[in-house]
Amino acid sequence: MADIRVAIMGSGSWGTAFGMVLADAGCEVMMWSRAADVVRQINEEHLNSAYHPGITLPAKLRATTDAPKALSGASIVVLAVPAQVLRANMETWKEYMAPGSVLVSLIKGIELGTSMRMSEVIAEVTGVDLGRIAVVSGPNLAGEIALGQPTATTVACADEASALALQEACTTDYFRPYWTTDVVGTEIGGAVKNVIALANGIAVGMGLGENSQASLMTRGLAEMARLGVALGADPLTFQGLAGVGDLVATCQSPLSRNRSFGENLGRGLSIEQTIEVTKQTCEGYKSCQPILELANQHGVEMPITEQVVAVLHHGQSPKRMASAFMSRDTKRESSLTP
User: Fold this and answer.
1) Quick one: 153 exposed, middle or buried, by C-beta within 10 A (0-12, 13-18, 19+)?
2) Which domains does the chain possess?
3) Distance of alpha carbon 4 from alpha carbon 90, whole angstroms
4) Would you give the DSSP letter of residue 117?
5) Rounded to whole angstroms, how far apart are CA atoms 88 and 125?
6) pLDDT tens digit string along 144-186?
7) Could you give the CA distance from residue 60 to residue 33 in angstroms, rounded to a whole number?
8) Catalytically annotated residues
9) How many CB atoms are closer than 10 A to CB 214?
């Protein structure tokens, strides 16, 4: 992998961890950050203590505040910024991207106002062929990956050759990627699981136990699959790493920022207080609305998502969410039944 140059656009928790993976796989990695102090620390101390304190970064991972420098000659461009700022950043960066580079989204969100998936935003802004736009999603809690703990993920791209090339570029002894051409399913899984994790966090914060959480996760998986299938995804994707795998990790781990956000609400903090104590981007907070809009556009019922939107954006009590969930009509169980 020594001949592969990678740009990581964003120096947050997941971007840094994935940069470590790529460097450990042998790639030359240049990370872009707005923060000069972060760049200095990465280059001089091989640390990013704001997100991964005490963890030494690989020597092949360097950093810069100069976006054109980061992008220059990069055959793989990894996008690791919050969903709602991707479009504006891509407008600035697109002219500096090398011809033929593969653009990789780590972003698990849906755009406000358009209800577009991140690969759709990238394609619209850059005009790049879908065969050069890839997505990485799975049970990938950044803190555990930075420690070198074993995990697996899904690498999705409409072009099989691009998917295989990216798979090879990020394979290490602790990070195992599986490839697919189902970009839609992979992105919907990554976005919707954040909303279900918020709901699960609320349940945890309210003191609800494992039965309640298992029920939320299972019915949340059904919501995810219904929306994905309506958009053309392969239903089997949701049984894999980008579906149930990511859902379980995000709902169950205290490292999950979406679960933690929900927990604070369930314990009685206000939305404003919860935002104040949340130090990292919680994609589910902003993406739940466009996800619900997308579902409504396609006639898909997503009752858990609907309740999360009501709590986060319409002032509904978290306790009301639980009672609304339990008051739905009972019916025959199916993975695609509302």
Assistant:
1) buried
2) 5-181 (3.40.50.720), 184-326 (1.10.1040.10)
3) 22
4) B
5) 9
6) 999 999 999 999 999 999 999 999 999 999 999 999 999 999 9
7) 16
8) 193
9) 12
